[in-house]
């Protein structure tokens, strides 16, 4: 199976990055670099800031300090929630995201459905899927977007062993085709990946709050 | 953006989408008014434009919190914010789909309900015109309120409190157009004000709403 993902050599670079969650600094002085074809696994205990870092890298929240060099048009983010519309069918859900990201829906949707073994479910309303099937649908969205850098927050939650293997295979193909990924996961997916332990970057002191937001809310 | 509009319209008409909720509410409110004020056709004719406008406004308010809340709850908002659509565009499309599923049906149903309230004949065209011009402003201002309260649990009441004062100018000029129309008076200036308010909020509010969403996404 071939993918049309192309990416330059260093697709993402961050230096001295600090990020905050709810106005409190959680991570500080993070340096990371991601090349095409490379996966980076974020590790660390609960609450260390894996989600916060991923959201910052995805551009959902501004960094407190530091520089982030990435093409925002090359990134796709997948969080804890799948963003699946219960009243739409599997195909309708994927087709919507394909149109949103400007890829050819018919071809990419068929490919994504096949890659995540959703063949028998295409006309089912997504609300009737099991948690694991819904997760697979959420991950299939990544293929539909045609983006090179995947930012994944706990992608294997509620997947069974076979589905994890399916996901690892998709991941391997994505990397082989020149894609890149940063994952927060506790599972070993069996893909070649560097890992980054975020406990080392814990923010020392609670740096200044963003007073405006606190007063505002 | 067209894909988003199509998706939102599809979701609105499927089960649980809330299409028709506002319309049914409008119908019930307007039917209740003659019971409350009595069957005097003179009085009903005089208050008809105001009652129809107020009913439409409240019906519009009813479905505002759905504009962003549903996408927020299932995580779609995060994904839309990182999709290649500008957030301002997302807001504008969502306000438009809210208007298409709420404001437009209300506008089309208003003349039928005008009959129930004995609205004078010359008023019908002006009522429809004033609602057609004014309800888009209600949807867009409402989208701003919904963006401000999107992360809050049960933010619906707060949303109403925030949005209702902002609805005042639209209500004043919209009801004034309908009233003057039904009495056969000159109505150029309230009509111009109504259109001006709608165009103004359509131009500015998407930016404010997108800024509010960005704050809430952090």
Give a description of the structure.
Chain A is an alpha/beta fold. In chain A, 31% of the residues lie in helices and 24% in strands. Chain A has a domain at 10-84 and 146-216: P-loop containing nucleotide triphosphate hydrolases (Rossmann fold, 3-Layer(aba) Sandwich). Chain A is built from 6 helices and 8 strands; from the N terminus they run E-E-E-H-E-E-H-H-H-E-H-E-E-H. In chain A, strands 5-6-7-3-8 form a 5-stranded parallel β-sheet, with helices on both faces. A 3-stranded antiparallel β-sheet of chain A has the order 2-1-4, with helices on one face. In chain A, helix 2 (90-100) packs parallel to helix 4 and helix 3 packs across helix 4 (131-145). Chain B has helices at 2-13, 21-37, 41-62, 66-73, 76-82, 87-116, 123-148, 156-183, 188-217. In chain B, helix 2 (21-37) packs antiparallel against helix 3 (41-62) and helix 6 runs antiparallel to helix 7. The A-B interface holds A 55, 58-62, 73, 75-88, 92, 96-97, 99-102, 141, 213, 216 and B 2-4, 6-7, 10-11, 14-17, 71, 74-76, 78-85, 215, 217-218.
Task: Jot down its keywords.
heterodimer, A: 217 residues, alpha/beta, Rossmann fold, three-stranded antiparallel β-sheet, 31% helix, disordered N terminus, B: 218 residues, mainly alpha, 83% helix, elongated
**What general form of chain B does the structure show?**
elongated
Count the domains of chain B.
1
> How would you characterize the largest beta sheet of chain B?
none
Tally the beta strands of chain B: 0
Low-confidence stretches of chain B: none
**Helix amount of chain A:** 25-40%
Number of helices of chain B: 9
User: What is the multimeric organization of the chains shown?
Assistant: heterodimer
User: How far apart are the first and last residues' alpha carbons of chain B, in Å?
Assistant: 23 Å
Name the average pLDDT of chain B: 90
Structural class of chain A: alpha/beta
Brief rundown of the structure:
With 217 residues, chain A is an alpha/beta fold. Chain A has helices at residues 50-58, 90-100, 105-115, 131-145, 161-176, 211-216; strands spanning 10-21, 24-35, 39-43, 65-70, 75-78, 149-153, 180-184, 194-197.
